[in-house]
Design brief:
By secondary structure, the chain is mainly beta. Helices cover about 5% and strands about 40% of the residues. It contains one helix and nine strands, in the order βββαββββββ. Strands 1, 2, 3, 4 and 9 form a five-stranded antiparallel β-sheet that branches. A four-stranded antiparallel β-sheet has the order 5-8-7-6, with no helix packed on it. The chain starts with 8 loop residues before the first strand and ends with a strand.
């Protein structure tokens, strides 16, 4: 039976958890995650974790921030005046705002704090700085 290698196309069902066991996402009950190993389409730790598996194999892998979503970068947290945002924008803690940066790329900003005068926006990925536990099952390999 074929084992997963760089260049193979893989389909994986996953459940991702924080170290405390809090489930942050899953593909169970939906479509598996589909990617080509080695193309950088997913985080490096998950991609590396699939290498050597066979279709039908399941395992749990621990991914440090360096091979996941990186460490938090406080330079990606900004505080702006509320009046710098469109007045119709719903500003609530936890809300995700989309912004086009100077390079033309869309960036997701999470409202982490808000008061009458200021809004704090965080461009870090929500998993940045976290060690992640992935339970994965390789469902298809080509």
């Amino acid at each position: 039976m074929k084992t997963a290698q760089i260049g193979n196309h893989a389909k994986v069902h996953y459940t991702v958890m924080l170290e405390d066991g809090e489930v942050m996402g899953t593909s169970k009950g939906g479509m598996p995650l589909s990617f080509t190993i080695g193309n950088g389409e997913i985080i490096k730790g998950l991609e590396n974790g699939v290498v050597g598996m066979k279709a039908g194999d399941a395992k749990t892998i621990t991914i440090a921030p360096e091979e996941g979503y990186g460490h938090r970068n406080e330079d990606q947290v900004i505080k702006i005046r509320r009046d710098e945002l469109p007045p119709e924008e719903d500003i609530a803690v936890g809300r995700i705002l989309q912004y086009r940066n100077e390079n033309g790329h869309m960036v997701s900003l999470v409202v982490s704090e808000a008061d009458e005068e200021t809004v704090t926006l965080d461009a870090n990925h929500p998993f940045a700085g976290h060690t992640l536990i992935y339970k994965i099952e390789l469902v298809a390999l080509s």
